[in-house]
Write the structure tokens for this entry.
Amino acid sequence: MGCKCSTQEKELRGKKNTIDGVIKEEKASNKPQATVILLGAGAAGKSTVMKQMQMLHTRNGKPTFTDTERGQFQKVIGDNIVANMRRVCAAMVKLDIPYGSPEGLEQAKLLVDVTEGLTSKAVELIQALWTDAGIQQCLARSSEYHLEDSARYFFDNLARISSSPYVPTDQDILLCRVMTTGVREVVLEEDDMLIKVLDVGGQRSERRKWLPSFMSPSMTNSLRNRDH
């Protein structure tokens, strides 16, 4: 039990050091500054809002996302696609919807065995399932189970995304689901003002311990999932 507490304390200290570093940087800058903190439960849209702000406030004419960042999003997008089709297949059982072809059920079982993201085999299975009448019926009832809002967009664009070379577009990046852990910071510039946007992830109980480290933010934006 003591080891568990020690690990949690180390994680909290690390996150507090990250926040303290942000505050020190703000004090060191001579430019007018504003700090925006994004709060909300998981899947409330905090990371999406942050990405939208990045796209609207491209700094010094530089690309919104670097080549390295786009490469990182490529894997995230692939994982999103596989995870969402698995959710649809699971909902087929829950909602008692039959597959439109005898091969559909077998393809769904094979997809469960894919463990390496959007492989060529996963692409083949998802493309086949995407055309199944039962899967389409299940998608029409997506309000009855958990499915990312962007799932249909990525299924529609699977051929492009699975081609080589694939570089995620701004729209792809905006719509992909990224789970935030700890504190993520993005620095924006607008009319000579420095804007620091902080996306606070993690469990709600932990956030209460982190937030006192932020000294009077200029704005706090609280987001809520529309489905909850």
In short: The chain has ten helices and four strands. The first strand starts at residue 33 and ends at 40. Residues 68-175 form a domain with the GI Alpha 1, domain 2-like fold (CATH 1.10.400.10). The beta strands are 33-40, 183-190, 193-200, 219-223.
